[in-house]
Specification:
- It is a single chain.
- The protein has one domain (23-88): Winged helix-like DNA-binding domain superfamily/Winged helix DNA-binding domain (Arc Repressor Mutant, subunit A, Orthogonal Bundle), CATH 1.10.10.
- The chain has 4 helices and 5 strands; from the N terminus they run ββααβααββ.
- Helices cover 46% and strands 23% of the residues.
- It has helices at 14-21, 24-36, 42-48, 55-67, and strands at 2-3, 10-11, 40-41, 72-79, 82-88.
- The two termini are 34 Å apart.
- It is of the alpha+beta class.
- A 3-stranded antiparallel β-sheet has the order 3-5-4.
Amino acid sequence: MTATKDRDAPFFDWAIATARLVAPLKVAIIEALDWIGEPLSASDLSKILDGRFTLQAVAYNIRALAKAEVIVEVRERHVRGAVQKYYFFY
């Protein structure tokens, strides 16, 4: 928070708050989905992000984005007893 001209009443600075609160991985996931323009799985996104984030972190943040309805699950594929989900950003 910073002060106004009279230095008595603080005000909320959205630019500072946004920079501190927005998760870089969530932004990277959205940007990758938008840039690629086709549904991707957590595994696909982990590879696209060059291993900067673990597969578990990518999957966790994808679920959070889907729950917040920022991205949408578009299909599932069964792979070796697991379910691989694909997501898209509209």
